[in-house]
Amino acid sequence: MDIFRTKSVEQSIRDTEDPEHQLRKRLTATDLTVFGIGVIVGTGIFVLTGQVAKEVAGPAVALSFVVAGIVCGLAALCYAEFASTIPVAGSAYTFAFATLGEFPAWVIGWDLTLELALAAAVVAVGWSGYFASMLASIGIHLPASLAGENPVVNVPAILIVLLLTVILVIGIKVSSRVNLILVITKITVVLLVIVAGLFFVKGANYTPFIPEAVSTPRVEGLKAPLIQVLFGVTPVAFGVMGIFSAAAIVFFAFIGFDIVATAAEETIHPQRDVPRGILGSLAICTALYVAVSLVVVGMQRYDRLSTSAPLSDAFISVGYGWLATIISVGAIAGLTTVVLVLLLGQTRVLFAMCRDGLLPRPLAKVHPRYGTPARLTIIIGVVTMALAGFVSFGELAELVNIGTLFAFVVVSIGVVILRRTRPDLPRAFRAPLVPVLPALSVLACLYLMLNLPVQTWLRFLVWMAIGVVIYFLYGYRHSRTVRARVKSGG
Question: Within 13 Å and on the Cβ side, how many CA atoms surround 473?
């Protein structure tokens, strides 16, 4: 079985011209940058900052954001080169198909499904928490069974996914306009947090900046980082190891710049604008993350931070509850854009897989009026609503991270392969220092993966095994690449 047969770049581009599966080109560099900021600035600032500072890194969580940002920066340069060379929907899936072959492409597509669908559900749950907090601040209290810490059914999370699914079906330009309005709102609030929070920062809260390493229940047994288990190190939180363990967790906050690449096919000038969107959004967001994390741990001692709404609760702790309400509004806007863009990215990855026949091809049919893959969008929306409504936040975030890091590893390797196999291809953007930079990206991503808990690795391996079974039962048999080979007698 020729499961490593690649799909040429030229064929990938020709597929985008099929009338039934042709996405409309309506996006600019500004749209892409806003999409990137829309999905990156969200959970990391509004939720993970407090959780990771309190449980894993202390005030040094700012360094964790720097580490995660550097790792993302290395991968982003590789993504930018690929996206400018192969401006086709699918992101890492499409890149892998052009360099490593069909089966590796399926694996990475299945992996991206894990990353994007679960991430959208996780963020929708975080959105629900802030929404309930905002309503409570004006005297409206939702029942705990519908929107509490452990609800029976998380109704607000389900409703926000439903609303955004409708917006995505209507069209990419409508989605980008809604995203722009919400991004402006949340960036304004983030800047407010930074400026207003500076007046309440206490130097004593930064001491110790790197708390002494301690063994905690959070990192015992299967919850211990894999690297600590492999090398026989007593699992600990805080300390220097805590910074890297936290970086592996807050990495979740950076997922999204790669989603810019999934919209390449809908971009007017993809070779020029996609790299700008990827690198621009990542640079802006890293600076915001570091600034906000330093302010919030300076306002309130790290071991007293809230894990559900750290920014708004930090202002409540200094007696400025009205600011907490504004922050909740910003968080709601912020997390809304994250869910929106994650759902967008997920539909475009599966769209590319369906168009190649690895999943049912009729699902990739574009709506004649809206120009979007409406069928796929609705299916993904329903699945995400189910996950957001019935699965808890903590169990999913780390699983999303390992999926993202694995995708980054594949893309970094793929850049080197495509440079050697197709040096003739026009590259509007070229990653510097190839192959050194991609090698550093691979090593950095693998290191962060090793800092994730053992149970995350086990769940990831189970998910990938399920994907392999589906490929051989369906994907390989219906692949357009294999069928074309059979017809040609190859």
Answer: 6
Check if the beta carbon of residue 267 is closer than 8 Å to that of residue 28: yes
Six-digit token string for 35: 């999409």
Helix, strand, or coil (residue 453): strand
What span, in angstroms and rounded, lies between the C-alpha atoms of 237 and 96? Answer: 36
On the CB side of 372, CA atoms within 13 Å amount to: 24
pLDDT digits (tens, 9 = 90+) for 419-455: 999 999 888 889 999 999 999 999 999 988 888 888 8
Is residue 331 within 8 A of residue 128, CB to CB? The reply is: no
DSSP state of 429: S
Asked if residues 8 and 98 have their Cβ atoms less than 8 Å apart, the reply is: yes
Whole-angstrom Cα distance, residue 257 to residue 282?
6
The amino acid occupying position 217 is P
Task: Write out the DSSP string of 122-134.
Answer: HHHHHHHHHHHHH
Contact 450, 326 (CB under 8 A): no
Query: Residue 482's pLDDT band (boundaries 50, 70, 90)?
Result: low
CA atoms within 13 A on the CB side of 189: 27
Question: Which tens digits make up the pLDDT trace of 362-380?
Answer: 998 888 887 888 999 999 9
* DSSP helix/strand/coil, 236: coil
Residue 374, Cβ neighbours under 10 Å: how many?
21
Contacts of 325 (CB under 8 A, 6+ apart): 134, 137, 138, 312
416 contact partners, CB below 8 Å, separation of at least 6: 434, 435, 438, 439
**Tokens, residue 240:** 């220097």
What rounded mean pLDDT belongs to the chain? 85
- Is residue 489 over pLDDT 70? no
pLDDT band with cut points at 50, 70 and 90 for residue 97: very high
Rounded to whole angstroms, the maximal C-alpha distance in the chain is 75
